[in-house]
């Protein structure tokens, strides 16, 4: 535990006793991981970090203990394992939802603006569902109906990627309970293909 | 008999003690045989029934029943063979007559023989289970005469030939044929069917197949149907006269099949004479005939109904989407009512008020009325026109008839909430301008709407009437407590409860001094008795009657809008005014002011104001003065502009938008209601339930419902189920 705390103090802001965005940036460079990399998000998930850009001591302890890492090099070695763990089907949905919540910075905020969503999609789903993400991002950027995306729509996209073949989308039925934004998205693609 | 002696007395069957003479049987049979001959030769008068009966009886008694029976059969058979030859020999027309004659003779003889052989019938035949005398006699006739090769087919052909002759118009001897068919029936139903009926039906089928083909090539639909009907009647008549009654259904089926069922489509769709033509030209008799004939065949009425429905839908669609026809809303609706009346009359006169036809007609009307999105508005305008002037002088009962017809059209509307919006607007204008023909008619219609749609639909409308009444009372109170005001201008105020009346933004307007003083006095009076309320003058909805004296002394009373009054009163103090001056003085917004000035200066016959330049449009540099040369043959001149009209395109868009906005909370309320009671429900069912709940008001769009669901999810009223994404759950 001491070593974990010691590591914490190396990056923490002494006055607030939190690792702040600056500290995280330093951590990332030491881990040789870009700070927009998904693995940092995964780390935050493992810590169950609540506030984007900050790690509390408790969260830090929780995460590193779970990863059995008390030094920087152990932490670095634990990252691939962490990634495998997160990508397991049973965990990924939870991680995906977490990623959304993590971006809700204001109190009572329920939706995230389009631009942030596009970045988030790229980070979280880009490696597994490249095509769907690219198309969806393009759609979100050119459409005018939605200025923000809420949790329900966010989760809807995840189910979409997992259940609907792309780009055929033969199983998709707009009369079912898919969020409207996806109905419009599918319609837009069909028009493009026609 | 004494019962003391038991053994010795035995009651035995009476035994005839006469020794049987072997020749006895032969002798007795000979007697009988000869008698049979005589009977057949019509020479029975000399015979003694009693003697013959006893002979037959004796034979049976002496166990010679068998000989008697076989002898009877042999003798009769021989006779019938002879008779058969005689019949065969008959030429031409007399063939049937001969047959008939011999048949009658045979029946008579058979009866006599049976009587003579009755003992044998009842004892010997009973015990041996052989056919009885009478049936036997019929079978012998059948086998030896009817089924004799030379007679069998000739008989059938002769009969069929006669039928054919009659069908082609010749007169035949019906009685003769009847006797023959009756003969068949007497011989047994299967004989009738196999030897006559079935071939008869086949031949008839052929006949009508050919005839129907001829007719359909040469006749129009109405004539064809007349002919078919005639043939049917003939066949029924034929059966009644000389066929067995059971044949009626079978032969009518044949006619129905060949003449109607096989040509159904072609008849109904026949150009220039088929169903559509009949409908267009109100040919009740032809339509009735078609209905009565087609109902006899499977899918007959369905065929007629389908063609009628698609015609009605097509015609209706053209009617409502024709831009020419939508120019005048009142005419548009009148046209719909006329069509409705027409089809009502057709259904009742020609189709016997058949419910399936009424339904087909109703669903067609519902279909095409809703194709035009302005139907709700137009129906309201129609009602407005009627309540304004159309029903003037009409008896109460007739008024009800008109209103009921309007209600019928109303029921077809899918967007009843749109109608409500317009109706409210138009009613407001009617009430405020005092331009309704009959208060009773207005109330009557409200009651009908309430019955149809429930209390909520009409509660606001009723509120409007209440406001009018209350305002009358308020005015009385006002003038009662201010007797000094009876000298000046008379103010009539209607106090409208916001929420009951269509919302209008309050438009700024500077009232002339005399008027605004009065208004203030009213305001204080009212607020004195109703604390906590706020009044705002709706200057864009008021009217004024002002007396004017023009240059040459012409006196007129002008009925104008409030805005117009403000403008006109300015000329009490100035001879000429520029547009800008008028605008400044009245503070009326530009578009309203321009419209107002236009109605005062540019309308022929109502131009109480003169404008320079004399152009049609109002320009900001224009100058105005009173038109001293103004004339009108009426003392009272109406220049007001507060009549309900068909909306302009932008107004229509606005109303439509408001309707859409109003629908959103209604959809949400329905969703919440449903989810509160069901707790968990899948997507398709929610859509269906919501649509059903809202159907009395409008047709809910599934996409819109989905949007509302998502909005409710966002606001934490509902959530999606974690495992089954088709389900929604109610969050308490």
Automatic annotation (TrEMBL), chain A:
Q: Which Pfam families match?
A: Cullin_binding
Q: Which GO terms describe its biological process?
A: protein neddylation
Query: For this UniProt entry, what's an example GO CC term?
Result: ubiquitin ligase complex
Signal peptide range equals none
Q: Where is the DCUN1 domain?
A: 1-190
Q: Name one GO molecular function term.
A: ubiquitin conjugating enzyme binding
What Gene3D superfamilies does the database record attribute to this sequence? Cullin, PONY binding domain, EF-hand
State what this protein does.
Neddylation of cullins play an essential role in the regulation of SCF-type complexes activity.
PANTHER family given for it?
A: DEFECTIVE IN CULLIN NEDDYLATION PROTEIN (PTHR12281:SF27), RP42 RELATED (PTHR12281)
Q: What is this protein called?
A: Defective in cullin neddylation protein
Species, as recorded: Brassica oleracea var. oleracea
Taxonomic placement = Eukaryota, Viridiplantae, Streptophyta, Embryophyta, Tracheophyta
From TrEMBL, chain B:
Q: Which GO terms fall under molecular function for this chain's record?
A: ubiquitin protein ligase binding
**What range(s) does the Cullin family profile domain occupy?**
374-601
Share an example GO biological-process annotation for this protein. ubiquitin-dependent protein catabolic process
Report if keyword Transcription regulation is assigned: no
Say which domain of life the source belongs to. Eukaryota
Cross-referenced PROSITE patterns: CULLIN_2
Record's InterPro entries? Cullin, Cullin-like_AB, Cullin_homology, Cullin_homology_sf, Cullin_N, Cullin_neddylation_domain, Cullin_repeat-like_dom_sf, WH-like_DNA-bd_sf
SMART domains reported in the protein's UniProt record? CULLIN, Cullin_Nedd8
Ordered alphabetically, the record's keywords are:
Isopeptide bond, Ubl conjugation, Ubl conjugation pathway
Can you tell me which family this protein belongs to? Belongs to the cullin family.
What is the protein's given name? Cullin family profile domain-containing protein
Q: Which organism's genome codes for this protein?
A: Brassica oleracea var. oleracea
